[in-house]
Design a protein that fits this description.
Blueprint lengths: L2 H10 L18 E5 L2 H34 L7 H8 L1 H28 L8 E5 L3 E5 L20 E4 L6 E4 L4
Antiparallel strand pairs: 1-3, 2-3, 4-5
Helix pairs in contact: 1-2, 2-3, 2-4, 3-4
C-alpha cells in the first residue's frame, strides 16, 4: 500500500474523541480565524503522533550515541556509523517516519490555507486549544527579518503550538 494511502486511511480512522489539540489558549494579539474542520483535526492529530514517533526514534539514536560516548571510544561517535550499527531496519524506519511526517505536515498546512485563505496580512498562523486557528504578526528581529525567515518561511512562516513551547512549520507558497 502506498504511503499516502496509509496516511489517508490512518487519518480517516481517527474519531473526534481521539482528536489531539495543544493546551495553549488564544493569546493577546492573536486573531481567531475559526476552528479546524474535523478532517484537519484528524490530520493534525496524525501530525502530532508522527512527530512523537520521530522523537522516539531520535531517542533511540541518542541512547545509542550516549552508550558509545560512555564506552570511551570517541572514534565510534560517527552518527552514520551508529545508525549502521542499529541496522537497516532502524534506518528504514527513520527515513519512513521523516517522509511520513513531511507529507502529513504539508497536507495539513495546505488544508489550513484552503480553509482560511484570507490570512495574508499575518506572517504567522498557529493552532491553539480546541483546534482554534489563530493568526498574528510575529515580531521582527533587530536585523529586520522575521524569526521565521531563518527557516525559509519569511512572510509565509507558520508556527504551531504543540506539546513543546513552540514548534515551527511552514505554510506552502503558491
Amino acid at each position: 500500500m502506498l504511503l499516502l494511502q496509509r496516511i489517508l486511511d490512518d487519518a480517516a480512522a481517527i474519531s473526534p474523541d481521539q482528536f489531539w489539540s495543544p493546551e495553549q489558549a488564544v493569546q493577546e494579539g492573536e486573531t481567531v480565524l475559526g476552528e479546524l474542520s474535523d478532517e484537519l483535526k484528524a490530520l493534525f492529530t496524525l501530525l502530532h503522533h508522527s512527530t512523537d514517533e520521530i522523537r522516539t526514534i531520535h531517542g533511540e539514536l541518542e541512547a545509542a550515541f550516549k552508550a558509545k560516548l560512555l564506552s570511551g571510544n570517541l572514534d565510534d561517535l560517527d552518527p552514520d556509523k551508529i545508525k549502521a550499527e542499529l541496522g537497516e531496519k532502524f534506518q528504514l524506519r527513520h527515513r519512513e517516519a521523516h517522509a511520513r511526517n513531511a507529507i502529513i505536515d504539508k497536507a495539513f498546512w495546505y488544508g489550513v490555507r484552503e480553509q482560511y485563505p484570507d490570512n495574508e496580512k499575518f506572517n504567522t498562523v498557529a493552532i491553539r486549544a480546541a483546534g482554534q486557528v489563530v493568526a498574528f504578526n510575529a515580531p521582527e528581529e533587530e536585523d529586520g527579518c522575521s524569526p521565521l525567515d531563518i527557516f525559509g518561511g519569511g512572510a509565509h512562516g507558520i508556527m504551531i503550538v504543540s506539546s513543546m513551547p513552540f514548534g515551527l512549520g511552514r505554510r506552502p507558497r503558491g
